[in-house]
Design brief:
This protein has 6 helices and 3 strands; from the N terminus they run H-H-H-E-H-H-E-E-H. Helix 4 crosses helix 5. The protein has a domain of 90 residues: Orthogonal Bundle (Arc Repressor Mutant, subunit A). It is mainly α and 136 residues long. It is globular. Strands 1-3-2 form a 3-stranded antiparallel sheet.
């Protein structure tokens, strides 16, 4: 089932590849990850491995972009706590910010982040729905 989600996140209405940079080779076509690349990837997953940050990203995906106060209201947290979480994600290039008057407006920086979240959620739902293996 997640393959359908993957294809939907990768194909634009005209049939061309959407989301992540289409000029980059697929994972299967790449050389085995170096230790440095694996470390970078681990760092990104570590930042994403937070219920709060995942909820903030979902709120941003649903709205397109939001200011800190609106994000704080959406996840029922203090604005300062939300700002701290957003800064961690901004440091990794997961979100970007722009100023609008006295407000800071955030959005997801790269459509690959949204595709990754969609695939992760799909896999979690599929795993939860899978029948228990027979205990032999």
């Amino acid at each position: 089932m997640c393959n359908d989600v993957f294809m939907a996140t990768q194909t634009a209405p005209g049939g061309e590849r959407a989301g992540c940079d289409p000029s980059k080779p697929s994972l299967a076509a790449r050389e085995l990850l170096t230790e440095a690349q694996a470390g970078e990837l681990r760092g990104m997953f570590k930042v994403l491995a937070s219920e709060t940050r995942l909820r903030l990203l979902h709120a941003l995906e649903r709205a397109g972009e939001l200011c800190v106060n609106d994000l704080a209201a959406a996840v029922e947290m203090a604005p300062q706590a939300v700002s701290n979480q957003l800064q961690r994600m901004a440091d990794r290039g997961i979100v970007v910010a722009r100023r609008e008057g006295s407000s800071v407006i955030y959005r997801i920086a790269d459509p690959c982040v949204t595709a990754l979240l969609e695939l992760g959620l799909c896999q979690a739902e599929d795993a939860r729905a899978a029948p228990e293996p027979d205990a032999a």
